[in-house]
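Handout, tutorial session.
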Amino acid sequence: MRLRRRAAEPVDVLVVCTGNLCRSPIIETLLVAAAPSLRVRSAGTAAPVGRAWHPLALAVLAEVGHEVTGEARRLTKRDVSAAVLVLTAEGRHRGRVVQLDPTAEERCFTLFEAARLLQLVPAPPGIGVNALAAHLGAALRDNPLEHDDDLPDPIAGTIDDFRACRDRVDAAVHDVAPALR
């Protein structure tokens, strides 16, 4: 008898970083707060599965009113395939996402890339996840210049490094969320 694997639960936005301990939990939390109707999940390309999210990430989120907990999840092809839009912390994470599922290339962007593209080519408010993914893909094709759109990893830093990460993510989510509401 052959066992069939269950498909991953569909999500609107998949957020990806390395360990799923700092950056992607911060992005996930702030994105859900900005657009509560979204189904958002986060994962890491090299996540230590089951490890609790970094205490400093949780502390800086609590400072702005988000009492959350979570544990690291490893990125899988099923996660990528189930996501309408994928937002990553770094370009190398985007590369890993596309390596797992080449069909994700047109719907995967770094968070800062998405925010930058929306500043260049604004999207109508409330267009939704599918239309936003298509909008970002078209904006990237029309504006293919390379930029440093990576979010530095605060994992070995101080609480101030985590605050800086949170604040940069918050600014980028502020640019992306209106299209998703």
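The second record follows below. Compare its token runs with those of the first.
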Amino acid sequence: MKNLGQYANKSRTMGSHQSSVMKSDVWLTPPEIIKALGLFDLDPCCPPVMPWTTANIMLHQGSVPRDWRGRVWLNPPYSREASAWLQRLASHGKGTALIFARTETTWFRKCVWEKANGILFLNGRIHFYLQNGTRAKANAGAPSCLVSYGDSDTQALKTCGLSGSFIQDWKTL
């Protein structure tokens, strides 16, 4: 059997399957998601321009901050650094992340399957928003999911009313 690793593209990002070339890794959270989940205490990687509020404290993207408090909203930059943000949320243990449902990847296994409390696989492909506040014309290009850490965020995800398939307690199966 051939070593399939020779075909791996080491520069792929969380949001790109075929190519590592991206025009931007900033994709604004659809406001209907925040409306369904409720306002968060902290958004630690908010883009510099954000037309609506995601959290009481919105920090602009940069390096992953160490001090996180309260309920965290995380829509990480869709780049190689995304897994570091997701690992930090898993360590914090209280919040929800919007990520691509790349269930086969190492980062998904380590940060979601092994550490999360709930997952809502959203129906259809969502439309992110551009920095000017308009909805992107094309969909995200990959399926998305919301991942919860902690009991209160898992309950919020379970009852939010967003269309999708919710799972929890997969570690006990």
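Points raised in discussion: Residues 24-172 form a domain with the Rossmann fold fold (CATH 3.40.50).
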